[in-house]
## 1
Amino acid sequence: MEGLHILAEFGQCAAVEAMASTRALEVLCVSACREAGLTVVGQLFHAFGLPAAPAGATGAVILAESHLTVHTWPEQGAVTLDLYVCNFSRDNRDAAEMAYARLLEAFRPVDVHRRDIWRTYPGLGPHPEKV
Amino acid sequence: MEGLHILAEFGQCAAVEAMASTRALEVLCVSACREAGLTVVGQLFHAFGLPAAPAGATGAVILAESHLTVHTWPEQGAVTLDLYVCNFSRDNRDAAEMAYARLLEAFRPVDVHRRDIWRTYPGLGPHPEKV
């Protein structure tokens, strides 16, 4: 269950449609994962606000490798995302980087704040080299 | 979009059913959020392995306040969870603590590794006091 968890906050995003349209957000998130070689086993997206006054969306893509979750605030031009990939049967860090790059490219933020968290089994300690 | 993101890894969990049964996991996660006063707007749970040989589950609970995601490895007695609550209209940190405590009590881990991440809008910097 060792794995990489990328937490990112994006500000001043140029991609209004991907933030305001739940369908566009879903297509983006699922395709970003699939194109990176991650295995999508389900997805759930929820729109906030009314159709005439969208107030962002939250989406979760369940992966065999763990998950991607995204929250959008189109009125603030902001997105937060989490991409967590475990290295259970192979090293998925390159796939995570590829999916993250696709999302970054799609949202086109001016401000990017990314933190990488290495998650591991309690008691084992961090093993960033273990795959 | 400021908010608290709790990342936790649990080891040597005693609660086998909650880890191996996707339905039990879903009931636990949804009720932990609801009982804490968080607003569940959807959930998606996926079982790995075969019914005769369950290999854990992944679940996502979409909240109006953000999300809860849980991954279980019953064969290792391990769970990772993420509980992310934004303070958009009110301070949800107490609700997050209540839901986390309910999950901790349910999984009964021997080893607990918890990290709290304060997430905020890029450019604003951290505002742990802002609600």
Note: Residues 10 and 104 of chain B are 8 Å apart (CA to CA).
## 2
Amino acid sequence: MYNFEFHNPTRIVFGKDRFKELNRLVPDQAKVLILYGGGSVKQFGTLDKVRQALGDRRLVEFGGIEPNPRYSTLMRAVEVVRDEGIDFLLAVGGGSVMDGTKFIALAANYEGNAEDLLTSRPKPAQAPTAHPIGTVVTLPATGSEMNSGGVISHRGGKFVFFSPLVYPRFSILDPTLTFTLPPTQVANGVIDTFIHTVEQYVTVPAEARFQDRTAEGILRTLIEIGPTTVANPTDYDARANLMWCATNGLNGLIGVGVPQDWTTHMIGHELTALFGIDHAKTLAILQPAVWTVRREQKRAKLLQYAERVWDLREGAEDARIDEAIARTRSFFEALGVATRLQAYGVTADRLDEIVRALEEHGMTALGEKREVTPEVSRRILEEAL
Amino acid sequence: MYNFEFHNPTRIVFGKDRFKELNRLVPDQAKVLILYGGGSVKQFGTLDKVRQALGDRRLVEFGGIEPNPRYSTLMRAVEVVRDEGIDFLLAVGGGSVMDGTKFIALAANYEGNAEDLLTSRPKPAQAPTAHPIGTVVTLPATGSEMNSGGVISHRGGKFVFFSPLVYPRFSILDPTLTFTLPPTQVANGVIDTFIHTVEQYVTVPAEARFQDRTAEGILRTLIEIGPTTVANPTDYDARANLMWCATNGLNGLIGVGVPQDWTTHMIGHELTALFGIDHAKTLAILQPAVWTVRREQKRAKLLQYAERVWDLREGAEDARIDEAIARTRSFFEALGVATRLQAYGVTADRLDEIVRALEEHGMTALGEKREVTPEVSRRILEEAL
């Protein structure tokens, strides 16, 4: 096990109707900016419930944070925070709204050009403090509700940032608030959680047994409840299990003390930026291809994954790995998500453009051992066609 | 899954030689009370290393916190905290030192009779604040390094208390600091962690799949590395895995949203108080007996435990349960820990006394459904003879 530091101060408030506790969780005197995305939180009444629960606090609202939230949109919210003297940010939505809110919390306290903050780890001098954040999660997927990172779109790229200042003070996880999600978004959430987990697990052995077993537990749970929760959105238990797995898939728990990959995510970001493919769908396309191309480097962990997640214990090693990859692909397809680039209209003649974008964004040494050069990324993309 | 709240603000600093970071972790201006138990932290140089790492801060020491720490001992430390104007408590030791330090942190801030705090959840008015705590863990077992509870001995009984004020600010987990432990204490740590886990897992089904899988991961890890880490104390990986499992076994992670039992612990506390049997050994004695007596109530989870922890999938249900209980007992025995009361000199004529102590301490409705009456406890004890 590698040395590590783990500190996650977010308070999770989990269960049916817990949004009623906003009154206890948000400071009494706070002037609150409620941030949200499209109209669904209005349409299904979530926003009304939140407003009501906040009692007589002064409230301001900022809607329209888009999927893959854009720097320009978020900077308009920063102006609102400053102009209105906001003291507390309440994100009501999924990963995009939460990620965007984190960026706003930092940028509102930064004197210089906020583009400086689009580095992976802003220096304390750049963002010496941040507005406190709370979240009401409406889409179980990104884990943003219990971590310190976010992804922002800007100038045709996606930028990842982390800061310990943006851990939410609290996150309300009410599975019933997610019952109205369209099936495609739920399927995306299952896949997003699955890939977060394997990016921290299917790497190279590191004698971190608790982390491995916990990752395997998340994967097995997703395989068990994924199809159910897509097909039966109001099955509380299935949705609750998805929701808690999504949070634990990216709150640091399975990622401490182990190597991490993130190749799939980094190439996936380019596919979203260039072609507008949903984040989770880019992951479903790329993950089987990453494993096929990097089978030798990941052999030991792929065999462990085959055995402990898919119960594949018999036969030759390569056959077990092939079967594990095939079952993973089938699992994604069964959720209604196509796993080939061509299904999204991306053909071989576009690969140059994707590889060039990776190079432009400095993504030239990806993977747990920094071995994924642009040449390897190209092979992965070819495999994913 | 039941509704739950999860908030664990402790910072974990894990790995070899991390005690050097005490200088970063303890506030610069703090006057620090270093608390420890017997002589082993002196003998093996841990105390010297800690002092050195704290630089030129003002230090006071309080040693002699015994196993099953006593109220009277801890109240002497409270006087030191008050007389010396201490601002920070640094526990260097195992569960007893950490639990004792938590109690001191509360009691030093309580105006009335500190015995009032020996309730399971002190009221905020009783302990409105607490001294900040850090820990340097020398014995992986109790999980006290990342939770808000403690157990204190007083007037012939053991008292459990919890307060969110006593989460350590940080805990340093350096597996190498535990290499000098005697094998019996390491075996106790393995068993303590195992029983913490099953008390939160072998109950009744609650559709909490992440929690179940994570608990199973801890149990399987302990089975894998337990005998190794007892036999080869300097095997870093084995000890690191024990240490991280011990923390995660009782930091809330596997216990949120699920029923919990704690029968074994509560009867075990009486065995320690009456006969001086090591805490972990009381658990090893009682757990097989609890499962044997409460097999019907726990049938579904015992079968799940048999299947997922011991790979017992074939044969009649009762045969699988019997085998799982037998393997659990063999696992404890293979660690060098006897699992029958009589091996510790406790015979049938002492059972009345134990049951009476349970009644006197209000332990008359134990278990995940409060079904363990004194009569059931007696049957468990008879089974454990």
Note: Residues 34 and 61 of chain B are 5 Å apart (CA to CA).
